[in-house]
Write a structure and sequence with these properties.
TIM Barrel; 8-stranded mixed sheet
Length: 334
């Protein structure tokens, strides 16, 4: 499926920044490399901005994964490798990326959909997480079966609870091994206040299932890919864009993840964030030299520190990261 196009009705994000006296976004020295290892997933969630699923064939090769580690090793100011997908665990290079990044002394975040740990021949995953001392960010869009299954498929909530209990038994969510959960709204609305919802999650999961976790991260659904098509099919796209634009919060801009993160696609191309990656908006926007488009990839940079000070490409979906309390890969901003 082709990348979803940008909304034509929303005002330009750059114009909104200027109206609030905010300069166009530029990158600080990157502290995180986020790598999307492909779109293969054992689930096909309604809100998925990656448009991932069991039939997707886009997947990072070993040569590209090796180059990611080379770039990481050459970028000493990068403290974190953030591995996502799809279900990143389904990539044959997943364990190599984790082990080599940890050997370099970097924090490794794995964005896990929970149910992948219960797939056939994936029983080793929980112990691998534990031995590798990764930080887990796991999707659980609600604490009730009805809402989770509506968004992620029948039976997903029950499997997610089993997976979370297994992770707790391995020490995640307790003491040193971090286990964070992710909330996405079911439909075309902004997330509720993160702290209040976290308290409710903590109470419901502990009381009903004996599950503990570290933090809840609330993330706004981005009007791109599968969710954009869902909005269009229900006639809600214009209303949702208006909601995001009307709740623009200038206090979120300085801490946007694109200021300190570089996103790497499964094919090695560079982007300002995972959302731009899915829309195929390259790092800094479309650039050209002598009438030729420049592909910014891991093959033509030496380290990500060289990208500091460069412009960040923005478009109308950026209102999703700046609406209300804001939204990033690590939850609410303001």
């Amino acid at each position: 499926m082709a990348a979803a196009t940008e909304s034509l009705s929303a005002p330009a994000f750059s114009e909104t920044l200027a109206r609030h006296g905010i300069r166009a976004l530029t990158r600080k020295s990157p502290t995180t490399i986020q790598v999307n290892v492909g779109k293969l997933c054992n689930q096909a969630c309604h809100h998925c901005h990656v448009d991932a699923g069991p039939r997707r064939t886009e997947i990072m090769t070993r040569a590209t994964a090796d180059r990611v580690i080379e770039i990481l090793a050459a970028s000493p100011h990068v403290r974190t490798l953030d591995i996502t997908g799809g279900a990143p665990e389904l990539n044959p290079n997943f364990t190599m990326l984790v082990e080599r990044a940890r050997a370099l002394g970097r924090t490794v975040i794995v964005r896990c959909n929970l149910t992948v740990t219960l797939e056939p021949r994936m029983e080793w995953l929980v112990d691998f997480y534990r031995r590798s001392e990764v930080e887990l960010i796991c999707s659980l869009p609600c604490y009730t079966a009805e809402n989770v299954d509506q968004q992620r498929g029948a039976g997903v909530f029950e499997k997610s609870i089993v997976a979370l209990r297994n992770l707790n038994a391995a020490g995640f969510g307790r003491a040193a091994m971090r286990l964070d959960l992710v909330y996405n709204p079911i439909g075309a609305s902004l997330p509720p206040p993160q702290a209040e919802l976290e308290s409710r999650y903590r109470d419901e999961l502990q009381r009903n299932f004996g599950i503990v976790f570290d933090r809840l991260l609330t993330i706004t659904n981005m009007p791109i890919a599968r969710f954009a098509h869902q909005l269009a099919a229900t006639g809600m796209h214009a209303n949702y864009m208006s909601l995001l634009v009307n709740h623009f919060n200038p206090a979120t801009v300085d801490a946007l993840m694109c200021r300190s993160l570089v996103s790497i696609g499964y094919d090695g191309r560079l982007y300002d964030c995972d959302f731009n990656q899915m829309l195929e908006i390259p790092l800094g926007g479309r650039q050209s030299r002598q009438d030729q488009t420049i592909d910014r990839t891991i093959w033509n940079i030496d380290d990500v520190a060289s990208l500091a000070g460069e412009p960040v490409a923005t478009a109308s979906h950026c209102f999703g990261c700046t609406a209300g309390a804001g939204s990033s890969c690590t939850g609410a901003i303001a």
